[in-house]
Amino acid sequence: MSTLTSRQQSEHARQLKRSLRSVQFRKESVAVALVAPLALFILVVFVMPVASMISRSIQSPEVVDALPKTTAALRQWDGRSPVPDEAYRALALDVERNGGNNDSGSAAGRLNGQKDGFRSLFYKTTSALPFGDNDAAIPVQEMKKRLIEIDPRWSDASYWHAIANESSRYTAQFLLATIDYRENSDGRMVPVERGASAYRAVFMRTFAISGLVTLTTMLLGYPLAYWISILPARKANLVMILVLLPFWTSILVRISAWIVLLQGEGLVNKALMALHAISTPLSLLFNRTGVLIAMTHILLPFMILPLYSVMKSIPSSYTKAAISLGSHPFGAFWKVYVPQTLPGVGAGGLLVFITALGYYITPALLGGAGDQMVSYYIAYFTNVALNWGMACALGAVLLLVTLILFGLYRKIVGTEMKVA
Length: 420
Fold this sequence. Notes:
The structure is a single chain. The protein is mostly helical. 72% of the residues lie in helices and 1% in strands. Helix 3 (68-74) runs antiparallel to helix 4. The protein is flat.
């Protein structure tokens, strides 16, 4: 009887486990079903475009697609010996096959970026081909001679070096260009010639402007957030509405307003001259000053909100206790209150800095030629130069910097929490 009871208990336990697993599976299925639309949205809208951007930054398929036979013939060329004769035949066949289509134009533009004059050379050769009914039957030496007769530049090895450098679909030249480096004919990384590129200076300018805007918003936002946190709830809500009001206004509208305010006959200069602070109007537009003022105004709420949320959660009794124990009010504020607001300072600073890194419209409208940030050049390569590889490389570097900053912030915050 006891054995039968033991079997029944064992069977009951197994049934109970199956029931629990079934319930747990249903709960997990419901959770997955609820999260799936958001996960799919993030995958399609964020993950896939970012992955595509990173992969495009190391791809250069234009020349390989337009000149498959030529690039194949040049892959084994060491760059120091004479150009292989077969490369001339391959070039003529490739150019004849393209017949000036879009692939040919893209390849010409891509090669022209490496060697000036390649575009005209490409089009001149295209218009002169084909030589006859069956160019493939023409002897190699004769094909080479005819190409050089079309344009003597085909005897210049530097033009063939440009094609050889593009003989692979994958390249690191876009990423190297973002730090002002390139690959020479031996495949080694060398700095570009002075004045040939300035992307390192552009990145330094972007970081400098973003850092100044972050510092300015912190200096303005900290006292304002503290003042709001000590106001009565009704007044604090009213002030927060005023802080958030710019979010409901288009950035273009706000920039246009700053153009009106900062121009030579604008309200700012007129007010300063009326107060006899200046005798002539200040130059506040189309320079770094106008960019910093407008970006600080636009990004100030991003600093105030994290600070206010942290400050509102700090009990005022801590500072009062320090004062009651003999501390000076400023000392109590600096040593007791300020350290507790550092998470808000870090979150606000990171949010403002990362947002400022990607700014495009404000520097484009209010800045001069020396005030444009990385986003300006990304837009240029995307819309004007149609060099998507370079645009994606610049975007990938910005993304890498953002991830590094976020990782440092997480590490610093995690260390502080462990110490606490």
